[in-house]
């Protein structure tokens, strides 16, 4: 009898092939210095590989946020950063990027031990992308222009784009390095100062970036890092009367609270990137083998080593192995003509994924970030089984310690099941079938979210029709996670508003001022 292939798991107690990072910074970073919290409290940060404590980190609260805002406010109102030429700001940002490049291994290791991200992928992709993002916005810093207006009467008018002021950045745990700079890099280029609050699950790399900013010559008070919890430090940022803009990436539920706090305080501007339940539509003419690879990439990317997959795909796909898990293609719709073949292929490929230590190069899938997320994902898997979905593959924890879960695929999923409606934020795919293009569009839009979508087809007419019909901020055709620093992304509907990346991200940290003077005795208007 042929033995069924199971998910592989690297031996739990095998030694990591690299030296684990030394934890150098655990205090708050305020006004260019590392300081204890006012209360003296600390909290544990946990290694998701083992469930063990890495270290204790300063627990910031309202009083600490007040100190950080005071430093950022002084740096903006009286300091050199917003008064520098854009070229000078860009020069310091370029140096910041160079210093990050010098610490790639250490930063990738911090995100691996703190967030469970694969070390090899962090070294090759995540941290180098951070440096490139800084350089992109450094290049934009001296290209911030207003425009001259053609007025309708004897007036001369022009606009200025000015930095919005002090920004508060509340970043998630899934991409601690990338999200730090998706928010801070355009704000720096615009001339803003800021307070960054990393997720309580992943504080370590953010504190290191504060240290490196100081080394790069960033003036004191421009970047401040407050570690702590959302309901305390995060809430203090959202409601602070001296913060001019708040940016948040996370759940829709917390996004509502951020908006409420902003509205009841000083009506600060808000940018939100929230939940997603993104669809991937695979049509009958698709290459089934590549479509299965894309479907797995779409749901497993963030904790996955994509090098083996990128080697299997052609150059076009290889260049596009980039992304954020908030846009995970957790709902996969396959046209009925290839559905059975696709299911067989997906099951075969999913079981090739090796789950294990993010420092081990053999691992293709690392752990979930913490026990709460681990338990939440397993709870959704049980919901799916109780509601009548069929477990095609996966569905179980891996190993006796840490927060590892098998890649999980459900078939026989109905659109009103919890696994098809709720954002699970884990390696759980809902696989469904459709007949016609109109049905596919209707199913894709049957969600309160609208962050992204994927389309796999060789028919340009189908691609154009479907891409213009899905209500989502980003549509990928025959690729997934095709991010680029010059291409903005963000949500429709309850996935939020405001954009990361591209020039749109720079503009959200600028406000437009109109300046008008009268014209006397001009021969023309």
From TrEMBL:
Q: Which residues are named in the active-site annotation?
A: 273
Give the residue range of the signal peptide. none
Q: Print the keywords alphabetically.
A: NAD, Oxidoreductase
Q: Which domain of life does the protein's organism represent?
A: Eukaryota
* Record domain Aldehyde dehydrogenase: where: 34-303, 321-515
User: How would you classify this enzyme at the top EC level?
Assistant: oxidoreductase
Show the catalytic activity: an aldehyde + NAD(+) + H2O = a carboxylate + NADH + 2 H(+)
Q: Name one GO molecular function term.
A: aldehyde dehydrogenase (NAD+) activity
Q: Which residues form a coiled coil?
A: none
Q: What is its EC number?
A: 1.2.1.3
Q: Which Pfam families match?
A: Aldedh
Subunit structure, briefly? Answer: Homotetramer.
The family note in this entry says:
Belongs to the aldehyde dehydrogenase family.
Protein name per UniProt? aldehyde dehydrogenase (NAD(+))
Instruction: Please give the organism.
Output: Populus tomentosa (Chinese white poplar)
């Amino acid at each position: 009898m042929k033995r069924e292939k199971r998910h592989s798991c690297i031996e739990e107690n095998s030694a990591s092939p690299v030296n684990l990072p030394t934890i150098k910074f655990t205090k708050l970073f305020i006004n260019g210095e590392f300081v204890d919290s006012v209360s003296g409290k600390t909290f544990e940060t946990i290694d998701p590989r083992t469930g063990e404590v890495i270290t204790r980190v300063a627990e910031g609260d309202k009083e600490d946020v007040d100190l950080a805002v005071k430093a950022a406010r002084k740096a903006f109102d009286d300091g050199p950063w917003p008064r520098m030429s854009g070229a000078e700001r860009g020069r310091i940002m370029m140096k910041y990027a160079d210093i990050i490049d010098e610490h790639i291994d250490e930063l990738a290791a911090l995100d691996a031990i703190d967030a469970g991200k694969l070390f090899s992928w962090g070294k090759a992709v995540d941290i180098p992308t951070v440096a490139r993002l800084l350089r992109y916005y450094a290049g934009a810093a001296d290209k911030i222009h207003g425009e001259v207006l053609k007025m309708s009467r004897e007036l001369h008018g022009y606009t200025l784009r000015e930095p919005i002021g002090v920004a508060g950045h509340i970043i998630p745990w899934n991409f601690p390095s990338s999200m730090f700079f998706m928010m801070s890099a355009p704000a720096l280029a615009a001339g803003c100062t800021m307070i960054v609050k990393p997720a309580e699950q992943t504080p370590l790399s953010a504190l290191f970036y504060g240290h490196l900013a100081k080394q790069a010559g960033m003036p004191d008070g421009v970047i401040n890092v407050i570690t702590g919890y959302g309901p305390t430090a995060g809430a203090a940022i959202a409601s602070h009367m001296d913060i001019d803009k708040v940016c948040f990436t996370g759940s829709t539920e917390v996004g509502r609270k951020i908006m409420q706090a902003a509205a009841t305080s000083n009506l600060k501007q808000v940018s939100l990137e929230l939940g997603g339940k993104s669809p991937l539509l695979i049509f009958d003419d698709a290459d089934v083998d590549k479509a299965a690879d894309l479907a797995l990439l779409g749901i497993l990317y963030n904790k996955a080593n994509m090098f083996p997959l990128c080697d299997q795909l052609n150059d076009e796909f290889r260049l596009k192995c980039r992304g954020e898990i908030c846009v995970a293609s957790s709902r996969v719709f396959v046209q009925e003509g290839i559905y059975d073949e696709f299911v067989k292929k997906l099951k075969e490929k999913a079981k090739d994924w090796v789950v294990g230590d993010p420092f081990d190069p053999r691992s293709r899938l690392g752990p979930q970030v913490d026990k709460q997320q681990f338990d939440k994902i397993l709870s959704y898997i049980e919901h799916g089984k109780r509601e009548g979905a069929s477990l095609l593959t996966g569905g179980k924890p891996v190993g006796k310690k840490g927060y590892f879960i098998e890649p999980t695929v459900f078939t026989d999923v109905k659109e009103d099941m919890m696994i098809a409606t709720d954002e699970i934020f884990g390696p759980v795919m809902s696989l469904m079938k459709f007949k016609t293009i109109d049905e596919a569009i209707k199913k894709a839009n049957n969600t309160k979210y609208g962050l992204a979508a994927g389309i796999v087809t060789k028919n340009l007419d189908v691609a154009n029709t479907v891409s213009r019909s899905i209500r989502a901020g980003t549509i990928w055709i025959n690729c997934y996670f095709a991010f680029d620093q010059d291409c903005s992304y963000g949500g429709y509907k309850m996935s939020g508003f405001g954009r990361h990346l591209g020039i749109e991200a720079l503009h959200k940290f600028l406000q437009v001022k109109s300046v008008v003077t009268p014209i006397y005795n001009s021969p023309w208007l």
